[in-house]
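Q: Joint fold for the lines below.
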Amino acid sequence: MIDDSDQNQNPESDPVARYEEERSDSSLLTDMTGAGRVDWRNNILIPLLAILSALIVGAIIIAFSDVDTLRLWGSDPGEALSVTATTIKDAYVALFEGAFGGIGPISETLTRAAPLILAGLAVAIGFQAGLFNIGANGQALIGGMFALVVGFQFSLPVFIHIPLIIIAGLIGGAIWGGIPGYLRAKTGAHEVITTIMLNFIALRLVDWLLTQSFFQLEGRSDPVSKSVMDSARYTKLLDWLNPRYRVHLGFIVAILAATFVWWLLYRSTIGFEFRTVGANPDGARYAGMNVVFLIVAVMAVAGSMAGLAGVDLVSGTLGRATPGFIGMIGFDAIALALLGRSHPFGVVAAGILFGALAAGGQNMQVSTNVGIDIVQVIQALIIVFIAAPALVKAVYRVRGETRGIEVSSGWAT
Amino acid sequence: MTATTAPADAPKVRTPAQIRRAKVLSIVYFVLAGITLFAFGFGGEGSATFVLSRPQDAIQVGDITVPVAGLAFIVAAILAFLGAREWMRGFGSRTNLVLAIGIGLFALSFLAWAASGASFSLVGILQETMKRAVPITFGAISGILCERTGIINIGIEGMLLGGAFTGAIVGSTMGAVAGMIGAALVGGLLALVLAVLTVKFTVDQIIAGVVINIFVLGMTSFYTSQILVENPQLNNAPIMQAIAIPLLSDIPLIGPVLFDQNIFVYAMYVVVAVTTFGLYQTRWGLRTRAVGEKPRAADTVGINVYRMKYLNVILGGLVAGFGGAYFTIGSVGRFDENMTAGRGFIGLAAMIFGRWHPVGALAAALVFGFADSLQVKLGILNTPIPSEFLGMAPYAVTIFVVAGLVGRSRPPSDYKPYVKE
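A: Joint structure:
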């Protein structure tokens, strides 16, 4: 048996002092109340340096991605250098132009950002409560399928249908997020494993549902769902400028959701309890909070946000469901929540950045021969640098206190 | 420790937590018994034929024909008995073993029901089970090596994927042996990153592991679309063929299943045996466990805690990377994006189910391997269960195992970053 006398000097004698101390230790997330002082070093400088570092390492990876150029290094290093430099420059210019070069690209960036922000909120809420929700993908799939049924099954006026489809998505996501929350609270099953397994189960469940006649588009043999009715489609915002601009109501839903999460976390009692459970579960228990209920509630709320990401695709961008329609958004959301320091508005900013990477990456893939998967690599690199601020500090010689992020330690019991 | 080391049949007091978990588990037995009784017993008819030999085997064993309903009634009765005993007394240290037997009986009854009216190759599905257990076992052993020394390795999935990718490329250009070595080295390199992040920079272990997973997924997908698609000759690794071990492979049923497999399955036996011996019989093993259980005490007696952590995490990475090569060199010969599909996480669940012991992990991996092979082998039969649901089986079993058993098995370490005073 491990006794933790090393860690706790006086655990029983003064729980309040210990609680305060631990709270201030992990105040990374709690001191960012939005109204308080902005810790510019941790919340602005380190993320910016992390993005810069990730782009530099990304450039190196691009340099090694072309077999012909790599051969050229042996025969003509000067020529190889200039070819490599041109490839990297072209790739990053295409990336930037595809994201911000005009109204069309900006519309595309915001379209991509909306589900990312919502899924990012799902991860961020978990982080705030000390839970690592990797299940945004599955939660979004189930939320999307709930919304899909409401979307194609009923014919209603727009002002009823759209709220209804949103509620359906919230419920679907909350169920799929609540399951791992319940398992964690009641049995101690670690949410990292259960949420990932539920992702795979949701993926296969959607595959199966899409072959059922209730869901499948008439006359199709491939797994494509019926289309959502027009009354349940998110309104396109820039339709009057150019019908090809895809940005829709989903982006506004995402901003409203972020505002709601900010209110919930920092202005409501239950949000305070969420953060207390995250900062110090024992402290929360001492204070008489119902930890089991809170863990289930956190995961359900997180799941419902991911569910909205599913609604965004089903009712907005795609208008229907296809196998695995959520793609990798649930995993991008992890990087995004870390980059946004788990703060709802940080998530919005990070979401727009990742939306830009996705939109720009598409442009880069089409107009240069660098594949869009490099965006995934850049995102992973961003988390490495964010999660290890000591690394960034050492490289750029930033002075002062920096803090990493802790989610959980050990397999909970 | 007293609760687990006491003789199982000696009367002993169970803690409230143990009693609660025993009740959860006994409900699971009753649910399984109910499914067996109603779905396979009342719902099954006719008989199923299990084929025990392959045509090419030297010693032929006759097929076994069992009545579906009869078998189901017997299995349901046994499961109900196990559930009742679990509720009242528990099985002590044999809980997981008994559960494995219970699941095995349930699986047998399920197979009989699925194959009713047809013949079904038991040899085939057991061979497939062994193969499918390989990456899960390697992942679990990797997890054990890391966790015994106090570091959670969530990055096993990425290490498997990195090993699979390297195995495909190096295997295609320089041969299978080089591919396996390269895969192991890439796994070790990723583990070094994990060790540096968690030990030196004290990054949260779970975040560091997830970063490795996302990074490897992005890298391998990028280079697959960037290089492998245009150069298919780089993605055409030789596939390891089965090697029959003389005499042993002639034993009926056991021979083809255990001793007529490819090199990865034999490597799995070796790794499990060596890890078990190493952890419990050598100085290295004692020090490893000491560092995991009580780093400060280990430090006090002169063990270099950081060096042990680095060593074991890198060893774990080598094992996971080698196991990853199974996906390409040991199985299909070509790399596909995200082809590991969560096997690393299932390996972690196998590690927990196996109580952080290599042999236990192997046994658990076989349970997952069986669930994994259902989709392939039952697809041929005309079962009323859609293949998507059979595909969910390994993931559902994982959740069930982690939820049902994690509280019963205590992790060997406390996983806090160790800071030398």
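Q: Anything notable?
A: Chain B has a mean pLDDT of 85. Strands of chain B lie at 47-51, 64-67, 119-121, 243-244, 260-261.
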